[in-house]
Amino acid sequence: MKTGRHAGTFSQGGSRMTRPITAGVDGSQESLAALAWAAREAVRRDLPLRVVHAWRFQPQEVLEAGIEGDADSHAEWVHSAVAEAVRAVAEQHPDLDVTTDVLEGAVVDTLVTAAADAESLVLGSRGHGPIVGFLLGSVGQQVIAEAGRPVVLVRAGDQPSAEAAGREIVVGQQGDPEDSADALRFAFETAAARGATVRVVRAWTLPPVFAYSPGSLKLADEAGGLEPYEKKALTAAVRPWRERHPDVPVEEHVEMGSAGQVLLSVAGTAQLMVVGRRAHRTAVGARIGSVAHGVLHHADCPVAVVPHM
C-alpha cells in the first residue's frame, strides 16, 4: 500500500480519513474506460482506488444476458467478472492501493452511498454490458443528480493520450464567487495534479430590460458596460484559486452566449470539462441542470459534474 500525504482527506469522529477515487463498473466498455481513468487519477493524486459494482438479481435480465443459474451462481459470476476487470488495472498500476466491493441492492442508492465517501465517483457515460449494471435508462442521471460528491463521466474509447500536455481543464463559472467555488476547487486541484492549464469560462447574455436589479446595473455602469462587468466578476471568482494554486496556469474566458454552447465551443482543447450543478427536485425526482445535461451529451472528453456543497 502506498503511503504519503493524500489530498482527499476529511475528518470523521476526530480522525483523518482518506477519500478514495471510486469507480463504478458494470462490464461495459464505458465502465472499463471509467475504471482506467479512475486508476490514473488515483495514481496522480496519491489516493486509493475503490471499485464498486452494484447489482440486484433479476432472473429475466440474467437470462437475456445468457447467464444460467440462481442468485448464488450469478453472484459468483459477477465477482469473477469484476475481479477480471480489476486485475488489468492492478497489473498496470502495481503500487496502487485497490479495494473491490460487489454490493447487492438498489443500484442508484448503492452508488450514491458509495459516492458519499469518495473524492469522486467515476462512471461510464452510456450503455450497459453483460453484467446488468447501473447505466440503464435514466439511472446514471439519477446518480449524478443525487450524489453529494463530484461524479465524473467517461466515454468508451477514452485514452491516456487525451490527458497530454497542452490540453486544458475547462471549468464553467457563473454567478457570484461562492456559486462556483466547488467546481473551481475541483478544476484547480485536478489541474495541479496533472500540470495542466485551467480555462475558466463565464458566459453571458444580454438581459431583458428588467432582468438586472438597479444595483447590478449600477455596478455594470461603473465597470464600463456589461462585458467588462462580466470580466471583473470572473476575475474576482478566480482570484482565491489563483492564490491557492500559484503554479497552475489560468486562462480567463468570457464570451457572450448560452453557457452550454460557450463551454462546448472550447471543448476541443479540453482533457476534462468541469461543470457545477444544483439538483432540481420535481414530482418525478431529481434533475440536473440544462448546462450539465448538454455538456454530458455533447462533449467528447470526460465531464465532471460537481455539486454545490
From TrEMBL:
Domain of life: Bacteria
Transmembrane portions of the chain: none
InterPro entries: Rossmann-like_a/b/a_fold, Universal_stress_UspA, UspA
Region (Disordered): 1-23
Domain UspA: from-to ranges: 17-155, 168-307
Entries under Gene3D superfamilies matching the protein: HUPs
Assigned protein family: Belongs to the universal stress protein A family.
Record-given protein name: Stress-inducible protein
